[in-house]
From TrEMBL:
Keywords: Kinase, Transferase. The gene is Ulk4_0. Gene3D superfamilies: Leucine-rich Repeat Variant. It comes from Lanius ludovicianus (Loggerhead shrike). It comes from the Eukaryota. The keyword Transcription does not apply. The keyword DNA damage does not apply. InterPro entries: ARM-like (IPR011989), ARM-type_fold (IPR016024), ULK4 (IPR045906). This is ULK4 kinase.
Length: 207
């Protein structure tokens, strides 16, 4: 073992927002144009269930809005930036990933016409996957993996977009593998298409 492994091989480092992989772009949001109160993590952690659910509903409603104007896109983007700052906290990440917000983030990946919204939606998903301590069977992680794989395949020649979607895909795969390894969920719970492996191999060969 001492000859085969070095200590650093056994240390798991983040895939998303890892400065050793990519230069970090700081996330900033404008609290004045957020359309939801810019609560701190401390405030959200101490919230009663009713207040938390109301706050969550407002965020979901904003993200799920079908309005196509530039202002609406800017509002969504601002909210996603705010979510990036929340998703790095373990308790909040665990609550958000198992909430109704997660399917809406997947829907934005699939349908948003603005690529910045898709890229930042993927970033939120990746950060949630990295920082959550739980992953319930009801979380549509397989669906998120399928959508991210399709986006990478469709935009294979666009390295900038691939660098947005690959980290989120990596974090989800690692999260699912680690939960499965601990025996927390049966394998059938999170089946995903073989296209995932094909796309990842292509990225490794041609990237």
């Amino acid at each position: 073992k001492e000859l085969i492994y070095t200590e650093s091989d056994l240390i798991v480092t983040p895939i998303i927002d890892n400065p050793k992989i990519m230069k970090l772009v700081p996330v900033r949001f404008d609290s004045k144009t957020l359309h939801v109160p810019a609560y701190s993590v401390e405030k959200l952690s101490s919230m009663k269930d009713t207040d938390w659910n109301n706050f969550l509903k407002r965020m979901c409603s904003l993200l799920d809005s079908s309005e196509k104007s530039t202002g609406a896109a800017r509002s969504k983007l601002n909210l996603l930036h705010y979510l990036c700052t929340l998703a790095v906290h373990k308790e909040i990440a665990s609550r958000l990933i198992s909430s109704q917000l997660f399917p809406i983030l997947i829907q934005q990946l699939r349908a948003a016409s603005n690529w910045d919204i898709r890229a930042n939606g993927a970033r939120v998903i990746g950060l949630l996957a990295l920082h959550t301590s739980e992953l319930g069977e009801n979380v549509p992680a397989s669906e998120a993996i399928t959508v991210l794989t399709e986006l990478i395949r469709e935009n294979f020649r666009n390295s900038k977009l691939k660098q947005c979607f690959l980290p989120a895909l990596g974090e989800l795969l690692y999260l699912m593998a680690s939960k499965e390894e601990k025996g927390e969920h049966p394998r059938e719970c999170w089946a995903f298409p073989s296209a995932v492996c094909t796309v990842l191999m292509r990225c490794l060969q041609e990237g």
